[in-house]
Each structure stands twice: as C-alpha cells, then as structure tokens.
Amino acid sequence: MFCKNCGKNIKEEDQFCNHCGQNLADNISEQEHQVNEKVKIIFIKSLYGKIFLGVASLFIIYIIFAKNPFSFVSDNRKIDQNVITSSVVNIWCQSSIDENDVSGGSGTIITTEGMVITNSHVIPQNETNVLTPENGCLVILPNKQNGQPEEMYWAKPIVISELSSNYDLAYLQVHDVFVDENGEKRGMFPKIFPSIFAEEQRYDDICRFQNIKLGDLVRVFGYPQTSGGLNLTITDGVVSSLPGDGTILTSAKIDLGNSGGLAVDKKGCVIGIPVAVSEGKYQNLGVIITTDSIIEFSKKLSEINQ
C-alpha cells in the first residue's frame, strides 16, 4: 500500500504514515498509486539513482566560490524585491533523447558570473546522466518591472553525484547568450548578472539568526503554470507548518513551474526554495526546502571540492 499524501510505502495495518504522519483512512492501492503518479499536478520527478558529475563541473563550482565558498547561503541574506525580480529566472530544458520532451521550472541567480541554483528534478536526467543537448538549458531573465521574458541564455546543468538526488538541488552555469532564428542575440554575454547574493547584499544583519515561526508571512517567486509559466509570478501566504524534516509548508500558492524559485519572509530574507505541493483531501500546501537544508547541501558539496 502507499500513503496518499507522500506516496511512500506503508503497511496495511498502519493507522498513520511513518513518513509524513498522514491519517491512512484514505490510503490507496499500488495500482491507484501508479495512476496518481502519472496525473497529479506536482512537480517532483523521480529522484532515485546516482547522477555522476564530471570533474569539469566540480572545477567550475570550485573556481566560482574559491574566494568565499558557498557564502551565498550564509546567515546574512537580506535582499529586496527589485533584486529578486531580476534574479529569479525561468528555466526550460529540452531532453536530448526526445526533442518534444521539455521540462521547466524556476531558478535563482546566486553569483554575478551567472550561477543558478534550482531543483534537481527540473533538469532532465536518468540514473546515470544529465539528458540535455550540448548547449544545456535555457535560462530566461525577466524584466524587473513587469516580470515578462527579456533576456535568454544557455546554461549547462551541474548535477552532483548522489547529493542532488538526496537534496533535490542542482546548479546551472550560464555560458552563452541565446541567438534566435533571425540571428538576434537575446542578451549580452559575458556580463555581470543580477544576483540575490551580490557582495553588497551579503552583510546586512537584519537576516542574521532569523528564526522562522508558525504564521510568519511568506512570499514566493517563480514561474507557475497557473499564470502561464512565462511571466514571473508572486504569491503570498504564511508558514503553515514546520514538519522538522528540512521543509516548510506554506499557504502561498505553488504550482508546476515554481520548482527552484525563491521564498522569502516579510523582511526579504531568504527562507528557502519552493519544491513541491503537498496534496490533502480538500486543499493543498506548498513545500519549501529550507535554507538550513541548502546550507547542509552546500557544506557537503564543499567537502567534495576539498
């Protein structure tokens, strides 16, 4: 049997799911579970298996963060909305196996060199390889005034062996500007990219030791299918639950396409990355990966680079 809420295996005699605590009065059979997995509108793809990262990808990460490794997830993370609306990007990835198979989501630029953090499941992959064309994925920067698509760049996915699977986190590194069919460049490269963790934004004490509490205001930035998936979209809510598993549940609307975006509190402090939807019987809650989980992921990545 499977838990209807989280999809994990459960015993028939259990009254509550050991993984998420869901009441199992409405648990479902394996056949029903398989059907639901195909049709439910959430955006976590399968994250099982090991993804092998080349030495070159790790070298890119090491060079970019050599002076101040992974400082983009430090306790000092005050940003303002103008910075966010320039830095939260749309991601489109075509499969190298089937050109008609396109996945997408959101991401956040974390360095002025064009490094983007996102969810691993946004990037096409199988158990052993990243499945994108040689150019990688498209990263689309919005107009900061209206959120409409403005600049487009090619970015190479950086999926870290096993870590990306466990934390559902990965990177993309911008490497070139996109040129349309008329030969027009949709941006400028190289360039200094807008970044929520640019040097001047990194040391504001207002976000130091910020504790997230039930009922705190949450604002989510991303590109959900609800609004068409092309324009930057903002939704508001509160911290609805703190499960203690490295996630935050929120009433802020999250949909397919929000994966990899950004969640901040009322002061503009980063609290995490939207990742999924927790489906209930009558209503849904958004799931956010906390900054604590991102920091843990980054520290383990740093250990690999040493």
Structure overview:
The chain is α+β, with helices and mostly antiparallel strands and 306 residues long. It folds into three domains: 1-40, no CATH class; 55-201 and 296-305, Trypsin-like serine proteases (Thrombin, subunit H); 205-292, Beta Barrel (Thrombin, subunit H), CATH 2.40.10. The protein has helices at 30-39, 55-64, 81-87, 163-167, 291-305; strands at 88-94, 102-109, 115-118, 137-142, 149-158, 170-177, 217-222, 233-241, 247-250, 262-264, 270-279, 284-290. Strands 1-2-3-6-5-4 form a six-stranded antiparallel barrel. A hairpin with a 7-residue loop joins strand 1 and strand 2 (102-109). The radius of gyration is 19 Å and the shape is globular.
In short:
The chain is of the alpha+beta class and 306 residues long. It has five helices and twelve strands. Strand 10 and strand 11 form a beta hairpin.
Helix segment count? 5
Assembly type of the chains comes to single chain
Low-confidence stretches: 28-55, 199-204
pLDDT averaged over residues: 79
Alpha carbon gap, first and last residue: 43 Å
Q: Quick one: CATH superfamily of the largest domain?
A: Trypsin-like serine proteases
Q: Rg from C-alpha positions? A: 19 Å
H-E string: HHHEEEEEHEEEEEEEH
Q: Which structural class is indicated by helix and strand composition? A: alpha+beta
Which strand order do you get reading across the main beta sheet? 1-2-3-6-5-4
CATH fold topology of the largest domain: Thrombin, subunit H
- Helix fraction, binned, reads 10-25%
CATH architecture of the largest domain: Beta Barrel
Q: What's the CATH C level of the largest domain?
A: Mainly Beta
Query: What global shape is seen?
Result: globular
Number of domains: 3
Total DSSP E strands: 12
- Major pleated sheet: 6 strands, antiparallel, barrel
